[in-house]
Design a protein that fits this description.
2 copies of one chain form a homodimer.
Chain A: H1 5-13, H2 19-27, E1 63-71, H3 76-94, E2 128-133, H4 135-138, E3 177-183, H5 186-199, E4 204-213, H6 244-250, E5 266-275, H7 277-281, H8 285-292, H9 329-332, E6 344-345, E7 348-354, E8 360-370, H10 377-387, E9 394-404, H11 417-420
Antiparallel strand pairs in A: 1-3, 1-4, 2-3, 5-8, 5-9, 6-8, 7-8
Helix pairs in contact in A: 2-3, 3-5
The complex binds protoporphyrin IX containing FE (2 copies).
EC number (chains A, B): 1.11.1.-
Organism (chains A, B): Virgisporangium aliadipatigenens
GO molecular function (chains A, B): ferrochelatase activity; heme binding; metal ion binding; peroxidase activity
Chain lengths: 421, 421
């Protein structure tokens, strides 16, 4: 039986949907359907419970609602309680159920509903909810260990350094906690974030949030490579779900790295990158392709033909110059120039209206997952920030880094279980 | 043959796609598929050419990118030229082709491409582009008749009055021209607006723009009623495409109204309405339903059962009070309380991140089409602004009114043909 919120209302009314039922429903979670560019993603559910959090190597959905929270309580129990409540709600919502057992129209009519209702009747839509903990959760800006976890902060979880050219706005950066909500229907992603925010009232406060669409990566070989707002295929050489050995090497925190509570987890880096699309659009095709190091149509590396051909950085053109320039984006970012470092990119395009100066406020909401930001994202971005000609067309305006714990395996575990013990 | 941008590249390279071909392709434009809530809209094309502009009574798509432009030239010919260029690009893009005949990867490599590329390979996705002219196009704020059309301004095209409670921001209001881009893929809607902006460089400048998702109305009886961010079904009693007599009475400008250039056109009112969803979510189900005048789950009028039951405003509850309160939204907005006035609503939900105060910056981007705003939108909104209890939970933050000319019937006509003669 595939169950959606509409069916759930009936069951909730008869008291038939409890935590155990939810777990059972979620455990039988359907297969994930690969998504091709220009084809809408699946309406089915992605399993919530598992050794790894969903929303990382699971196929990219069409829409993102990313949210970062500040914790406003100083009471550890309240925070742990909320993480428990959130986990239960996340298990339900990812299965296509209401956030709470009474639902949007159940419960006492004189009480506020325990779901906000805008996803009533909508299918699970591939919803994934992925949680992360920021450095400030372990020790706040004033150096205070609010929740008695300062000594559990992973060595790998450091605030990112300031990179050359950064134009970071503090109000849309950082946060004690983050949740990446991805779904094939934006209403479902927005509904999930909003209900988490509602459940968190008094304990957390929304610090910033961002909507995205259209994907700027593929996380599976079965997904056609989508395009970013520079019009180029993005994600061709992404770390993909099928590369299981590489995932172990570059993505998931192994026992050897520790701390114990992060084993099987990973680290998220987010960067909101404004793209000056109007300037880009006045640049010649040759120049655009030289900046990226790939052709615009097919997406093949310069000097070669097909999208998935290996880049040949030694190749020279008729003029004796390298086919892929010394400061082309794909050369600078290539593992061979970065001690073998690879990233799992999982970003989205965004348009936040216009900027009041006649330009669209558009760009790429970059998200990468990696085993150790300081050895992967940071050195690559150091290189890009210094040399990438693309910098003339982009501005990094927000930044965040978060420790994403391993998955919740069953209904008696929760998002904070490994961290708070 | 259904043609997408990928096929088009090949054809463009061989020179096979000219204006005539485009027109032919568009004329054979496929059927439109009705969209149910929770089901993704069709990837097919909606015909561009016709007596009426598409994007009004055609089925609502899943995504919106609305843009308003200021005209920055004072030369009438430049403006008319742009309207011609835009119309050709709109005919192409709605058919799933590149904005220009050379395309994103055709043309001279040392020139900027004549399409920005991010929709390469994507199907038409139901894209519609609907143009409107604001009052300031006819006479600017300084009273100047920049383009020699002041005497062509329709009597019905007046700036909207200030309503009680309005919190209008000038920077996201008005504009000389507007384009409503709707599509079932946000990347396709964004691509269209961006290419129109690109083509308009030096002639127009983006004043403001807004993304929306999820629909807050149905425009056809075949569309299931979607939900707004208060969690209620929205669009139940909307003016629908099937009500052909009512469309003639309430929507399309008849010969009797004039001016001649607007016959077969209509007027758009847009209002960006911020919804204080956090406050709403703390309100009881009873109170929410009383404010709207309908049940949250089924969406039936209070005191009756099913969504499409007629509201009975005389009905009393056991307590002797009216089942639908005196100031319930659906009573205040009902045609029987507004000299029979009806609107075709075609709005979208929006979330613009958060507001820096711990709240989502969410709401409803209200769009209504009508034959005469002063006799339809304005009196209804006067009543709502004064009496609607919903006002405690909403703020109107932007406003615009635009004259939308009749449709472009063939490739030798253009968006400005009736106005500029
Ligand atoms: C708006 C900003 C950016 C744009 C438009 C962009 C665009 C692209 C494109 C078109 C490709 C080639 C296709 C592919 O393999 O995915 C690519 C590759 C790549 N990018 Fe970016 N990128 C941006 C920012 C970044 C950042 C901030 C990083 C990390 C610090 C990054 C790391 C990479 C990596 C690792 C590759 C693959 C290189 C290879 O192995 O060939 N990019 N990017
Ligand atoms: C955020 C603001 C608003 C919300 C949440 C909202 C919500 C609703 C809902 C839930 C309904 C009932 C279902 C339906 O028939 O569509 C409705 C009906 C209606 N609304 Fe609104 N509305 C809003 C603003 C407006 C505005 C600004 C106008 C016009 C000035 C308007 C005009 C109408 C009309 C004409 C109806 C149908 C009344 C009838 O014939 O029964 N609404 N609205």
């Amino acid at each position: 039986m595939r169950m959606n919120r509409r069916t759930a209302i009936g069951l909730a009314a008869t008291g038939a949907v409890g935590a155990a039922t939810t777990a059972a429903l979620v455990a039988q979670g359907p297969e994930s359907h690969p998504v091709a560019a220009g084809q809408h993603g699946s309406a089915a559910a992605v399993p919530f419970y598992g050794d790894r959090q969903a929303g990382i190597t699971t196929p990219m959905q069409d829409h993102l609602h990313f949210v970062a929270f500040d914790v406003v309580t100083t009471k550890r129990e309240q925070l742990v309680d909320l993480l428990q409540t959130w986990t239960a709600a996340a298990a339900r919502m990812t299965a296509g159920l209401d956030a709470g057992t009474l639902g949007a129209v159940g419960g006492a009519p004189e009480a506020p509903p325990d779901d906000t209702g805008e996803a009533l009747g909508l299918p699970p839509s591939g919803l994934t909810l992925t949680v992360g903990f920021g450095p400030s959760l372990f020790r706040d800006a004033a150096g205070k260990d609010r929740f008695g976890i300062a000594d559990r902060r992973p060595e790998a979880l450091q605030e990112l350094p300031r990179f050359p050219g950064d134009a970071i706005e503090a109000g849309i950066s950082g946060g004690d906690l983050c949740v990446q909500a991805c779904a094939n229907d934006p209403q479902v992603a927005v509904h999930a974030v909003r209900n988490l925010a509602r459940l968190g009232m008094g304990v957390v406060s929304v610090r910033w949030s961002q909507l995205g669409f259209g994907r700027t990566s593929a996380t599976s070989r079965a997904q056609a490579t989508p395009r970013n707002l520079f019009g180029f295929k993005d994600g061709t050489r992404n770390l993909k779900a099928e590369e299981t050995a590489a995932l172990d090497e570059h993505l998931w925190v192994p026992g050897a790295d520790g701390p114990a509570w992060m084993v099987g987890g990973t680290y998220a880096v987010v960067r909101k990158i404004r793209m000056l699309v109007e300037t880009w659009d006045r640049t010649s095709l040759t120049e655009q392709e030289a900046i990226v190091g790939r052709t615009k149509g097919e997406g093949g590396p310069l000097g070669r033909t097909n999208e998935f051909d290996e880049a040949d950085f030694a190749l020279q053109g008729a003029d004796g110059e390298p086919a892929i320039g010394e400061v082309a984006h794909i050369r600078l970012a290539h593992p061979s120039n970065n001690q073998g470092a690879r990233l799992l990119r999982r970003g989205y395009n965004f348009v936040d209206g216009s900027d009041g100066l006649g330009r669209l406020n558009a760009g790429l909401f970059f998200i990468s997952y990696q085993r150790h930001p300081g050895r992967q994202f940071v050195p690559v971005q150091q290189k890009l920030a210094r040399h990438d000609v693309m910098n003339e067309y982009i501005r990094h305006v927000s930044t965040g880094v978060y420790a994403c714990p391993p998955g919740v395996r069953a209904a008696d575990e929760h998002w904070g279980a490994t961290l708070f013990g």
